[in-house]
C-alpha cells in the first residue's frame, strides 16, 4: 500500500504578547461589548476571544443614558450607552469571578477604568487591581459623556501622561492607554503615554458623530451624539494605528471596524500587535471571534505566513 509522505501543514501561529502577557490569538474583546458580567466574559473566551476586556468601571455605579442608546445607520453603529456599570467595587467582584475561570483557560483579563480626575483613575484602578486582572486599560477617550466629564484626557499629551504615570505608580499590573481618533495628532498622544510608562496602547475608541431622524426632526439617540463604530471607523483606526506604530515601541491593540479575518490582517500590517473586536459581534453574532480567527488562518496559509510577526508592520516596509 502506498504511504502518503505529505503531512498536513501545521496551523499558523496566532499567538502574541502584550506587556509580557501571552495571548493564544490576537483577538481581544473590546471594552463595552459583552464585558458586563463574569458569565458573558467567560462565554466569549470559550467562543474564541484571545483576551477579554471588561466594561469600563467608574468610582460609583452609573445607570447610563436612557434609550435609544444604539442605532445601526447603515455603514456602522452609533452608540451612547453612557458608561453603564456597577461601580468600582461591583466591577471588582465581577472581575474576580471571571478570573477564576479565565485563568485556567489561559485567556487574559483586562480591566477598564474611566474617571474624571487623575486621583479617581488611581482609586478605581487600585480597586480593580485587587481582583487580579492581567492588565488595566485606562479609558481616556470615551466620547459620550463630555457634557458630564468635560474634555477627555486623551485630548492632551500632558493629561494623558499624568493619568498613565499616576496609575502606573499605583498598580502592579501592566497599564494600557486607550486613545481617541478625534485628535489632531494621535501619535503625539501615544508617545506621551509611552514616555509616562504605558505598557501598551489601545487605538482607537469610537469617533463622535450624530444621526438625525428627518421625520421627527431630531437626533435619534437620546444623548443626541454618540460614538461611531463598525465598518466606517476602520480606515480611521488603521490610519491611527499606522501613525502610532511609527513613534512607539510598546504594543498596540488595533481596534475599530474589524469584522473579518482580512480586516484583522490589515490592522496587523498597520503595526498592531493584537486586534480589538467589538461591533463584529453585532454583525456576525457570538461566533464572530471563531470566524475571524479561521479567516485569518486561511489567509495566512494561502500566503505562506507562519506567524503574526511575519506580517506585523508590513505596511511600514514598503
Automatic annotation (TrEMBL):
Keywords: Cytoplasm, Flavoprotein, FMN, Oxidoreductase, Pyrimidine biosynthesis. Residues 14-300 form the Dihydroorotate dehydrogenase catalytic domain. FMN binds at residues 31, 55-56, 139, 178, 204, 230, 256-257, 278-279. Its main location: cytoplasm. The keyword Cytoplasm applies. Gene3D superfamilies: Aldolase class I. The active site is at residue 142. Pathway: Pyrimidine metabolism; UMP biosynthesis via de novo pathway. It comes from the Bacteria. It is an enzyme of class 1 (oxidoreductase). Pfam families: DHO_dh. Its EC number is 1.3.-.-. It is found in: Cytoplasm. One of its GO terms (cellular component) is cytoplasm. It catalyses: (S)-dihydroorotate + A = orotate + AH2. Its cofactor is FMN. Substrate binds at residues 55, 79-83, 139, 205-206. GO terms for biological process: 'de novo' pyrimidine nucleobase biosynthetic process; 'de novo' UMP biosynthetic process. GO terms for molecular function: dihydroorotate dehydrogenase activity. Binds 1 FMN per subunit. Catalyzes the conversion of dihydroorotate to orotate. Belongs to the dihydroorotate dehydrogenase family. Type 1 subfamily. NCBIfam families: PRK07259.1 (NF005574), pyrD_sub1_fam (TIGR01037). This is Dihydroorotate dehydrogenase.
Amino acid at each position: 500500500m502506498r504511504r502518503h509522505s505529505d503531512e498536513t501543514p501545521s496551523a499558523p501561529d496566532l499567538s502574541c504578547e502584550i506587556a509580557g502577557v501571552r495571548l493564544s490569538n490576537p483577538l481581544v474583546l473590546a471594552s463595552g461589548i459583552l464585558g458586563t458580567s463574569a458569565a458573558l466574559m467567560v462565554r466569549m473566551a470559550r467562543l474564541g476571544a484571545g483576551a477579554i476586556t471588561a466594561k469600563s468601571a467608574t468610582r460609583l455605579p452609573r445607570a447610563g443614558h436612557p434609550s435609544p442608546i444604539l442605532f445601526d445607520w447603515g455603514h456602522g453603529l452609533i452608540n451612547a450607552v453612557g458608561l453603564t456599570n456597577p461601580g468600582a467595587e461591583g466591577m471588582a467582584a465581577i472581575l474576580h469571578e471571571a478570573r477564576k475561570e479565565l485563568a485556567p483557560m489561559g485567556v487574559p483579563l483586562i480591566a477598564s477604568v474611566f474617571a474624571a480626575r487623575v486621583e479617581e483613575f488611581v482609586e478605581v484602578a487600585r480597586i480593580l487591581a485587587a481582583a487580579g486582572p492581567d492588565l488595566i486599560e485606562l479609558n481616556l477617550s470615551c466620547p459620550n459623556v463630555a457634557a458630564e466629564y468635560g474634555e477627555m484626557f486623551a485630548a492632551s499629551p500632558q493629561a494623558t501622561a499624568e493619568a498613565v504615570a499616576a496609575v502606573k505608580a499605583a498598580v502592579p499590573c501592566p497599564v494600557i492607554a486607550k486613545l481617541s481618533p478625534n485628535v489632531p495628532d494621535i501619535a503625539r498622544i501615544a508617545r506621551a503615554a509611552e514616555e509616562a510608562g504605558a505598557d501598551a496602547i489601545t487605538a482607537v475608541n469610537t469617533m463622535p458623530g450624530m444621526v438625525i431622524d428627518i421625520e421627527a426632526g431630531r437626533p435619534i439617540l437620546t444623548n443626541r451624539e454618540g460614538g461611531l463604530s463598525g465598518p466606517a471607523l476602520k480606515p480611521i483606526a488603521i490610519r491611527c494605528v499606522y501613525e502610532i506604530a511609527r513613534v512607539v515601541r510598546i504594543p498596540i491593540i488595533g481596534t475599530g471596524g474589524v469584522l473579518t479575518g482580512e480586516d484583522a490582517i490589515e490592522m496587523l500590517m498597520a503595526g498592531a500587535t493584537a486586534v480589538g473586536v467589538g461591533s463584529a459581534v453585532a454583525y456576525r453574532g457570538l461566533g464572530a471571534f471563531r470566524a475571524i480567527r479561521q479567516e485569518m488562518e486561511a489567509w495566512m496559509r494561502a500566503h505562506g505566513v507562519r506567524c503574526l510577526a511575519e506580517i506585523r508592520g508590513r505596511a511600514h516596509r514598503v
